[in-house]
Design brief:
The chain is of the alpha/beta class. It has a single domain (11-302), classed as Aldolase class I (TIM Barrel, Alpha-Beta Barrel), CATH 3.20.20.70. The protein is 35% helix and 16% strand. The chain has helices at 11-18, 58-61, 66-81, 100-111, 132-141, 158-163, 170-179, 200-204, 206-211, 230-237, 247-257, 288-302; strands at residues 24-29, 85-90, 118-125, 146-154, 186-193, 217-222, 225-226, 266-269, 279-281. The strands form 2 sheets. Strands 1-2-3-4-5-6-8 form a 7-stranded parallel beta sheet, sandwiched between helices. A two-stranded antiparallel ribbon has the order 7-9. Helix 4 (100-111) links the parallel strand 2 and strand 3. Helix 11 (247-257) crosses helix 12 (288-302). The relative contact order is 0.13.
């Protein structure tokens, strides 16, 4: 299933179809959460690739209250992107890492800013920070709004997860996927390619893993290094210790990977990028927009289509 004129099932096209052609924009909220591998519950220091500020928009970091963040982001989105409707996106850290009453209060505060134009809620979190009570809460929200939980899988290999200091196993992630069958909300899975020790074949195998999960969305990222992260310290000491994708190398990889994905899976992102002030490596010498155009141009020139190599699994 391809949306629009792109060669993959892209999120922008999906949003336009779902919301009758309206321009829908995500507004990011930082609610001040932490993570269980950051506060000592499961570990300290967080994920080795992570510096929270590096993937939190500067506009969000400038405003203290949730209301201020949402108001300012919506105002800018209307002016810059001609946004008509909004999805409130709780992004930095683990946004279900609290009790249900506290979570409801925070989500409701954000959703109350502009209810007539707010059509959805997106919440970034981890598989080990969602229990049955929280899943039931999101089912309730889904009666009125488009809800998606963005779950960080990052890798399907426990050796990588341990090296990243994730604090959970892939089986814990799969257990959460099982709990989410037949729920009213959607799932988005975030994965990172180019992690140290993972081969080309290991990365391509992630396509089969995503295909079998009960998810609507996926975010595909290449590994990049940010200042203030554990990987950033290692990279400064020895850049050769962490091989990174070149733009052409990542383009080649996606041209192999995208055809293997099931055609109904909506791709929210093809790559990741941080604010320039935090970005350490790799340097692709292109803007975010130009990278997007480069990848999409490569798909068209090479005749790459999502799902072209997807084979529906046969029942046992």
């Amino acid at each position: 299933m391809k949306t629009g004129d792109k060669h993959y099932n892209n999120y922008g096209g999906w949003l336009r179809q779902k919301f009758d052609g309206q321009q829908v924009f995500k507004v990011t909220v930082d609610a001040g959460f932490t993570c269980p591998n950051r506060d000592g519950s499961k570990g300290f220091g967080g994920c080795t690739y992570c510096n929270v500020d590096s993937f939190t928009p500067a506009l969000t970091r400038q405003h203290e209250t949730i209301r201020e963040q949402v108001e300012k982001s919506m105002e800018r989105a209307r002016k810059v992107y001609r946004a008509e409707k909004f999805i409130v996106y709780f992004q930095p850290n683990t946004n279900t890492y609290s009790d249900v009453d506290t979570l409801r209060k925070l989500y409701d505060e954000a959703l109350a800013v502009n209810p007539s134009e707010t059509v959805g809620l997106s919440v970034g979190t981890r598989a080990d920070c969602l229990d049955d009570e929280k899943l039931a809460m999101f089912d309730e929200y889904a009666d009125k709004l488009a809800i998606d939980l963005e779950i960080g899988m990052e890798s399907m290999y426990d050796t990588s997860l341990q090296s990243l200091n994730r604090g959970h196993t892939h089986q814990e992630f799969l257990d959460l996927m099982d709990k989410c069958h037949n729920r009213k909300f959607d799932l988005c899975v975030h994965t990172i390619f180019g992690l140290p020790g993972e081969t080309h074949e290991m990365m391509l195998a992630v396509a089969d893993e995503l295909n079998r999960l009960p998810i609507r969305f996926a975010k595909l990222h290449h590994l990049y290094i940010v200042k203030g992260s554990v990987m950033g310290v290692r990279y400064r000491r020895d850049p050769d210790s962490i091989p990174l994708f070149t733009l052409e190398g990542y383009t080649d990889f996606l041209c192999e990977f995208i055809p293997k994905l099931r055609p109904d899976l909506v791709i929210q992102r093809l790559f990741g990028i941080s604010d320039r002030e935090y970005h350490l490596a790799p340097h692709w010498q292109k803007s975010k927009r130009d990278i997007q155009l480069h990848l999409e141009r490569a798909f068209k020139e090479r005749g790459i289509f999502q799902g072209a190599e997807y084979a529906i699994p046969q029942p046992l």
